[in-house]
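RECORD TYPE: protein structure
NAME: SPW_0924 family protein
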Amino acid sequence: MRALVAAAIGLAAAFALILAVTAVGAPSGETSPEPLLTTVPGPKK
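PREDICTED:
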């Protein structure tokens, strides 16, 4: 029975966290036009 209560509390906490993040929304701003480099550029020829 304790495990069931603990699972319900954990599920409710996770759901509340998801609702809070959704309510806050995405941060305002804009993305950078520069692409992100995923590798080190080699020597220029």
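COMMENT: The chain has a mean pLDDT of 85.
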